[in-house]
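Two records follow; treat each independently.
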Amino acid sequence: MNNDENLFKRIKNQTLTIIEEITKSPKPTYTLEGQRVAWEEYLQQLQETVEWCDKMMANTTPFEMCTTAGT
């Protein structure tokens, strides 16, 4: 396993931990002192990060390609 793959796995695990924490007690979107807190958008961004990590790990995974030569 290379360093990039380890990094993507760590990012994914950290992100999944955050997702687990914020979904235990979901909160509505609200505005506090002029700052908007959008939990649904934050959750969506976290889910996209997990998908990105999966794609990046798939790109770093070694693969074998078998071909046959025609006559």
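The next record belongs to a different protein.
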Amino acid sequence: MGEFVSKVMDWIESTHIQEQVADVDYVGLFSNPWFMVPFVLLILYLLYKQSFKDLIVITCFVGVWWVTGTEYMNTLVVGDELQVSKVLPVLFGGAALVGFLIYLFFGRSD
């Protein structure tokens, strides 16, 4: 199992996914009609179908993506040292979000 995980991690590092995500120009993305038209159509379709769970999940993904680009996230690691006092709110916020999504999908009945 450890060999499989190390192969997957090596593959992720070889694709440079983290660098690509960090280099995304979100202003350019949200002003690009090739992204915005399908995105807005998806949101309108989900509103029409009243699929609020999917809308909440999309909102959570966009929110997490936005939060990861803030200055607060850039200061989590100073030099080579992790700032534990800044990591704990992120950890608890992520746990609360995951708990909310689990409640949304498994705790409620429609």
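Discussion point: The first strand starts at residue 77 and ends at 78. How would you locate this feature using only the token line?
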